[in-house]
Amino acid sequence: MKTESWRSVLGFEGKYCVSDYGRIRRDGGDILKISKDCKGYARTYLYRNGQRMTLRVHTLVLEAFVCKRKHGMQCCHYDGDRLNARLDNLRWDTPSANRLDSVRHGTHACGRKLTLANVVEIKQLILDGEFSDAKIAESFSVTASAIQKIRIGSRWRSV
User: What residues contact 9, with CB distance under 8 A and at least 6 apart?
Assistant: First the structure.
């Protein structure tokens, strides 16, 4: 079993540390409580100059162990679990790669009803032109509006 490694939280050096297991502690002190934010991500509260700051744990882990977030990059979770902030589950990547991940693990907003394979099939049916959006929608148990959004590229654009 790997030993937990600790590093200073970027911008909070000497006050807080973060581990590669996704835990936060006061420097040399107690482990802090991690809670879930409204979007389901692990978060914690850190204080600087008397001000409370709400920060996502996955960002603290990546910034301490990999590098500061580069412009346009997002934190991606390999397993799709927003609460899993272990270093081996995280990476910086593009928004497009993050969306593709969410399709793969079924956490994409559209992906709850349609799988990647469904969308590939739907796109082929659209290209064939044999069936109306309503007929395609009926066969996949979604609305015609969902099919139209796939057709015009406002949903599943990356597929």
Answer: 15, 16, 17, 18, 24, 46, 60, 63, 64
Structure tokens at 144: 């015609």
pLDDT 10s digits, 55-102: 999 999 999 999 999 999 999 999 989 999 999 999 999 988 888 887
Q: Which residues contact 49 (CB under 8 A, 6 or more apart)?
A: none
Please classify residue 61 by burial: count the beta carbons closer than 10 Å to its beta carbon, then call 0-12 exposed, 13-18 middle and 19+ buried. buried
Cα angle vertex 89, ends 83, 4, to 5°? 90
pTM metric for this prediction: 0.68
Say whether 123 sits in a helix, a strand or coil: helix
The domains of the chain, with CATH numbers, are 6-104 (3.90.75.20), 110-152 (no CATH)
Chain position carrying tokens 């996955």: 58
User: Nearest CA to 98 among 82, 115, 114, 117?
Assistant: 82
